[in-house]
Amino acid sequence: MKKKALITGIRGQDGAYLSKFLLEKGYEVYGGDRRNADSSLWKLKELGIEHEVKIVYMDLLELTNIIRVIDKIKPDEIYNLAAQSFVQASFEQPILTSEINAMGVLRLLETIRTVKPDTKFYQASTSEMFGNIQESPLKETTSFYPRSPYAIAKLFGHWITINYRESYNMFCCSGILFNHESPLRGLEFVTRKITYGIARIKNGLQDRLVLGNLDSKRDWGYAPEYVEAMWLMLQRKEPDDYVICTGEEHSVREFVEKAFKVVGKDIVWKSKGIDEKGIDKKTGKVLVEVSPEFFRPAEVNCLSCDFSKAKTKLGWKPKTNFDELVNIMVEADIKRLEKSKL
Predict the structure, then answer these.
(1) Does the active-site annotation cover 150?
(2) Which of 118, 133, 186, 318 is the most buried (most CB within 10 A)?
(3) According to the model, what pLDDT value does residue 34 have?
């Protein structure tokens, strides 16, 4: 009999890649999807699996809905990838962010406990919980110091997952994932904003990028590899929490420079701070502008992270390096635009 997996946040980047991964493993995959005006499942379509994932309407704000869905499907595994996932938006919508990212996790766990307690549960935690860095390298035992409503809500979700594991002997794991990107990343995220913008610049559809803090650093990995780590966590005999990362940090500035090189453009930086501009060496045109509109009220520092626990216990390690990731994303957006012209 096929295993059943329920994935919340099915329209997101990770939901799509995880669905494809599980389908290839022979799972019956259900995707939890909120009813809203945007019913697009373009990420599933791009991976060619839109007809293989069974969509169920599920909203983490509504407990009775969650109970009915889990009671009907009776999944073997639940991957909670649903979230208000945009950090900057969490400063504008802190209450909604908390209802989804914190209380939504509790509603899921309480439903599993009462309806199907043998279901294995994966919680998508985040490196944003580390916030104001307390030590380096960052690992599972590092103290948390969240710096946004998003990270604070995620920290509740992380700790309530641990609490249900320890209190009720449930199989609950949290993956503390650092940033992971792909061509399926949403346009509200800086990496995809850069690669999509560069593809448009190449095709004459816009003349420059407008970004925030260019010196902000992140550990960026490749999303399809990170969803495998999620699955591996639920295949262990004992539940535990794992840091998933590459161990390398790069700035937004580096990402911009690498991405422009893919289309044959070199950047010269003029001035520093909010009036900084990135100039094309050959033409002298402004390709990048910095705007205070895109600065966070509280920035997160980034230092090296340690994925040795995942490597030792899960047999997981990253395979795609930073340069390869940037190339993959830029080339994918260029192809999308070229295809749209046909």
Answers:
(1) yes
(2) 318
(3) 85
